[in-house]
Amino acid sequence: EDGIRDSETWLEFRRVLFRSNPACGDVMQLSLLVRDGVISQVRYKTRGCVASIACGSLLTALIAGQPVADAALLKPFDVASGIGGLPPESGHASVLVVDALKAALKASAA
Known about the structure:
Order of helices and strands: EEEEHHHH
Shape: globular
Number of helices: 4
């Protein structure tokens, strides 16, 4: 399964980050456009389980328009809670998207 949100505009973004979970094989592409310390646009594409797709979609909704400092505080629990919880075997999904977010924030600051 694929989860995609607004991927047709990838070319606007300077950095596209890839994160994967070697245990399950899920892969996430995440890109942020940061202007004046605010995440003005965010795009994602996930190849993986339904939980990873849902967490990626929710992540984009949670961080779009938010200050980078606020987005940096997001935890896997916040994402999992936002989609109504995850069973233990799907907990990797919220970790994957938050790891991708942290990497994208670090890259956008460079």
